[in-house]
Each structure stands twice: as structure tokens, then as C-alpha cells.
Amino acid sequence: MTMLLSLMLATASPVAGAALPPMPQDLSTVPVIDGWLGRKISPRWSEEVARLYRRGECAGAVPYEGSSLLEIDMLFLLSGDGKPLKIAPVNASCPGVEKFVNARITGSLRSSFPKNGGDTPQWMRSQVRFLWSDAP
Question: DSSP 3-state assignment of 98?
């Protein structure tokens, strides 16, 4: 029970009872995370995403030089110490891809976000990209 309580506290908002800022509707108003590690390494995850597309579970990838390209805009609500409080794939249009991306980010990339030192959570954005080919 103590471990469950610890997990719940770790994911709670930074100030108990404080309202989190609403998700932005206009991406152009959200600062970009410069040089975010997830944008650089997400192409390595392409084969996992391609499997969902090959099974017909998803749509939205576009043709790109004989391959398939999927670019997903991501919104992150970050605490002042760089911990993701919310992760929102904006245009994934596929629950399987959303689940996969969220799991990768909360797992291996959890500590890859910038710290702003503030007390108020801030929305920031980046992108993940996937590229695969089904050519023989």
C-alpha cells in the first residue's frame, strides 16, 4: 500500500488543490522544447508504430520518399523541476500509438525535460517522428 501511495504522490500536482493550466488550443502559443531528446530518438521506435499500421489499426501516416512518415505534435505539462505532469499527443489519431508514445516518454524519457525552476506548471511542445518502409 505504501508503494501505491508513493506513486500517487509522485504524479500529483505540485501544489495540492492548485488548478493546472488548461491545455492550449493553439500550438503556436506554446514554447518549443529546444533539442528535446525524444524528438531525436523517436525514429528508433518506428518499427513498433509500423506494426500498428500494418495491422490496419491506425491511419494518418503520409508517403515520404517511398516510405511512410508519421509526425506527432506533443504537448507536455511540466513542473518547475522538469517532471511531466501531463503528456498529450495532439494529432496521433490512433489510441495504440498514443499509448505506445506515452509509455516510452514516461519510461525512458521521463528525465529529459527542461527545468524552469518555477512554481507553476508550464505547457511546452515538441514532436515525435516515425519513418518506416514496407518495401521488400
Answer: helix
| pLDDT at 1 (0 to 100) | 36
What is the C-alpha separation between 133 and 64, in angstroms, rounded? 9
Ramachandran angles phi, psi of 95, nearest 5°: -55, -35
Query: Which grid cell sits at 33?
Result: 522544447
How confident is the model over 63-72, as pLDDT tens digits? 999 999 999 9
End-to-end Cα distance, the chain: 51
For residue 50, what are the CA distances in angstroms to 20, 65, 97, 111? 34, 16, 10, 26
DSSP 11-60: TS-SSTTPPPPPPPS-GGGSPB-TT-HHHHHGGGGHHHHHHHHHTT----
**Region 22-50 average pLDDT:** 94
